[in-house]
Design brief:
The protein has about 500 residues and is of the alpha+beta class. The protein has 16 helices and 16 strands. It starts with a strand and ends with a strand.
Length: about 500
């Protein structure tokens, strides 16, 4: 009997990874590991660069969520240069970010997570993809999805300068404002986006919540972990993507901590394991107890579901009504069912489009007062936003000339590295017995991490670590001559 099962590569995610599942003598799962073989060394090769380069440099970490890194870096520069942007700049930034959030959540639900529910988790792999979704739901729905994506990227380019990798955030504000003509277009497209968000929630109702098998899959025990939850909240403890305090609640739902992003090091610590390049953040005051959940383990989640669990509601009326329906349907708060993250993501999509419209209608949004020039010597700065995949923190240190001397990034997916590992192991243990494995079962193991919408291109850093390297030299016939290794 093969005691090692590899899913290599894992599919429908941003980046590269594999899952190794190890079986015991009876063919049941003894352990499972998510391994990330790629290394993205942004914390190292940004050193020595001017701090002002960071919004454009760090946007290149990822082509899926460059807007998140761009704004986290821009906010870190605000703090670094000790400058407070004018109110119009903050509103323009949040408007831009709401449009990005709605566009990104659309991508994950329809292209990455959706195929498992629209086609079924055990559908043939050749069908279980975006093309299969289009065939199943029809071109009318596909056209709605494509319009939402097209409108979002059009507005991101109109506001931020580029459809991908914006070049617009500056310490103290932004490089360009919003004209009255652009504001009207943003508002008009925002109404279409709001209709699309409501449509998506209705589609989820029809396809998932009205399907007893899927509802059991969501609410069953296979994908459950009782961890702490993290998210950014406003003054009323409602979800906010752009600004606020970081709130952490326990597995029982009670508040564990609430802190300003610049104080994150008092609450979050990081550790490494030898089998992956991803760091493992954990709650410092609880401590690292290994890959276990519960109130005595410092493992926490930072996902759309976590943001809902860590908040007391949503700041817009339609999303807030859906928030309360979510908990009424799934039971007591907090909800620890990982697959419910897909529903939470659609509630956030609704919130993002409502907030998009609110900000587009704000008279300040077309103000020409969209930047304050920095005048202080740079020192140290922290910037934080809620990326679609979790709380994103950029921390920079510079010399008096503004040259970077140290960089630390805690990315949304990095926060979730430990719970993803827990989820994969538990799903494998629940699904694989006596060595009986099928492609469909392995896809259901992948569903355990897919709900987190992980972006491994964003998340992989080495701390401190050394890159392992293996080179095999072959002769002209392909016969191995010599094997050279480093740090293996």
């Amino acid at each position: 009997m093969n005691r090692r099962i590899s899913i290599d590569p894992v599919t429908r995610l941003e980046g590269h990874g594999k899952i190794d599942i190890f079986l015991d003598d009876q063919g049941n799962v003894a352990n499972a590991y998510l391994q990330i073989p790629e290394l993205r060394g942004f914390e190292r090769f940004c050193l020595g660069r001017p701090a002002e380069d960071m919004p454009n440099l760090t946007a290149r970490i990822c082509g899926v969520c460059p807007e998140a890194h761009h704004l986290a870096a821009t906010k870190a520069l605000d703090d670094l240069f000790h400058v407070d942007p004018p109110p119009a700049a903050k509103k323009i930034r949040e408007l831009f970010y709401s449009i990005f959030f709605a566009t990104d959540h659309t991508t994950h639900f329809y292209a990455l997570g959706g195929p498992d529910f629209v086609l079924g988790p055990k559908a043939p792999p050749a069908q279980r993809n975006i093309l299969g979704v289009v065939k199943k739901v029809g071109m009318d729905i596909a056209s709605k999805v494509l319009k939402m994506r097209r409108d979002g990227h059009h507005l991101i380019q109109a506001i931020g300068g580029r459809a991908v990798h914006p070049n617009w955030g500056l310490p103290g504000g932004v490089s360009r404002g919003i004209s009255p003509e652009l504001r009207r277009e943003i508002e008009d497209l925002g109404r279409h986006a709001l209709d699309f968000a409501k449509f998506s929630l209705q589609l989820f109702d029809n396809l998932v919540l009205h399907n007893s098998d899927y509802l059991q899959l969501i609410s069953g025990d296979t994908y459950v972990h009782h961890t702490y939850n993290m998210g950014t909240v406003d003054d009323n403890n409602c979800v906010n993507f752009y600004d606020g305090l970081i709130r952490v609640t326990g597995p029982d739902g009670r508040e564990h901590a609430k802190y300003h992003p610049k104080d994150y090091q008092n609450f979050i610590a990081e550790r490494v394991e030898p089998w992956t390049y991803l760091k493992f953040p954990y709650l410092k005051r609880v401590g690292w107890k290994g890959f276990v959940d519960g109130p005595d383990s410092g493992i926490y989640k930072a996902t759309p579901l976590s943001r809902l669990n860590a908040a007391d509601g949503m700041a817009t009326p339609l999303a807030n009504a859906e928030y309360h329906r979510f908990y009424e349907t799934l039971g007591a708060k907090p909800v620890h069912h990982t697959l419910a993250t897909h529903w939470a993501r659609l509630i956030e999509l609704l919130y993002a489009t409502e907030r998009w419209l609110e900000l587009a209608a704000d008279p300040l949004i077309t103000s020409p007062d969209f930047r304050v020039l920095p005048s202080h010597t740079p020192t140290e700065g922290v910037g934080c936003v809620e990326a679609p995949r979790g709380t994103l923190t950029h921390h920079y240190w510079t010399d008096p000339r503004g040259i970077l001397t140290k960089v630390n990034l805690i990315v949304g997916t990095t926060n979730n590295n430990a719970p993803i590992s827990l989820s994969i192991k538990k799903a494998a243990q629940q699904l694989i017995h006596h060595g009986q494995v099928s492609e469909g079962l392995l896809n259901m193991v992948e569903m355990a991490f897919r709900a987190y919408d992980p972006c491994f291109g964003c998340a992989t850093h080495s701390l401190p670590g050394h890159m392992p390297l293996e080179i095999t030299l072959h002769d002209h016939l392909g016969n191995p001559l010599q094997r050279l290794t480093q740090n293996l």
